[in-house]
């Protein structure tokens, strides 16, 4: 024991001295970007930016981190930042995911915000590396006009910079903006700028200094479904009797240009191709295979207009709210379904059980402003812990349903600004003693027994009175 303690103390000491020797990563000012390509996809209401950066170290000391920069207004709408490093040449090229973390720098001009990307190997003097990044932005298209009637198309503004914001000099760069249709009302020109069909090309621009910025506005048609779920509560209840029960409460809104004037259902139905082009009347819900007991209801009751298609790979549920949704309109509804437990509950090598389930919103192509995922564990579960591949808020709640003695542990995971890219697997580990499973049947048996005894006693007393 003493020896072990000594080793531990030595280890702690080692780490402490390590940390004090290298207080925080030093961001090299001697990086430059030899070539940058940016592709901005504006075809839906979720904006995806694909960046390809060729980073070069012109300094003498190796650099292990490099920075992605964002204007402060954009960072609030940033749902996701991912980066990969391209390793190998041409056909043997593979992509290695890199860790990306927000960092605070004191002397950033104009409140610029940063994410630090950790490279696989430190970049030595004169070396280059190619990094590809994906940025996902939400709530960044502003409808203009802000109100439209049933027969009008929806137009939106997109604000950005023609020059990529960066703390490094960029030797050469080009930006491509893709719009959903050729109807582009206007766009800022920063020469050279070229519009062809559904694409605007900004650049190439040579030798731009660090923190160069050149604001642009693009005004274009976008009739994509602006389906935003203001709040989604998903409850996943684990029952060791073989079932996983899921209940999902949706608060949906059409976040596009507000509808003005009256709504004519006749016009909507007879001229479907031009009337209400930006509205939507059905949604696609992607569910796991082998789903059963599916229901879909709102505050009035069950909605029958839904279709379920299943195959061995997936299930797709098509739902139709009671009325089509126009800009600013809302709908609240509940979807519930059951799944076979053995598809999602496993035992880990250390004997704990774990649920392996999908995070994110099952309704395709939506932004969720606030997602609350509750995993209700069986009674008697202990030491729960959740593993989610991105940061979420976590806490524990208790839930009581009938027959529960001590209540069920509920692991709650909360996340804001959830996009389809967040649909990945998470795990909830817990300890469970199978004896606990007998608690409920035993209680039932005991209750029946007591009831039976009470009856016997009652009959007995009753009998004796009559006799007397
Ligand atoms: C709604 O549908 C579910 C499942 O099909 C059913 O169990 C329930 O009784 C229905 N409720 C009403 C009010 O029709
Ligand atoms: C969770 O399930 C997915 C899909 O079946 C699988 O790819 C993944 O490896 C599983 N994760 C764990 C930790 O079991």
From TrEMBL:
A single Gene Ontology CC term: oligosaccharyltransferase complex
Entries under InterPro entries matching the protein: Ribophorin_I
GO biological process, alphabetically ordered: protein N-linked glycosylation via asparagine
Protein name, per record: Dolichyl-diphosphooligosaccharide--protein glycosyltransferase subunit 1
Keyword Signal: yes
Keywords: Endoplasmic reticulum, Membrane, Signal, Transmembrane, Transmembrane helix
Localization: Endoplasmic reticulum membrane
Pathway of action: Protein modification; protein glycosylation
Membrane topology: Single-pass type I membrane protein
Family statement: Belongs to the OST1 family.
Organism annotation: Nelumbo nucifera (Sacred lotus)
Summary of subunit composition and partner proteins: Component of the oligosaccharyltransferase (OST) complex.
Gene: LOC104594873
One Pfam family named in its UniProt record: Ribophorin_I
Function description: Subunit of the oligosaccharyl transferase (OST) complex that catalyzes the initial transfer of a defined glycan (Glc(3)Man(9)GlcNAc(2) in eukaryotes) from the lipid carrier dolichol-pyrophosphate to an asparagine residue within an Asn-X-Ser/Thr consensus motif in nascent polypeptide chains, the first step in protein N-glycosylation. N-glycosylation occurs cotranslationally and the complex associates with the Sec61 complex at the channel-forming translocon complex that mediates protein translocation across the endoplasmic reticulum (ER). All subunits are required for a maximal enzyme activity.
Ranges that cross the membrane: 442-461
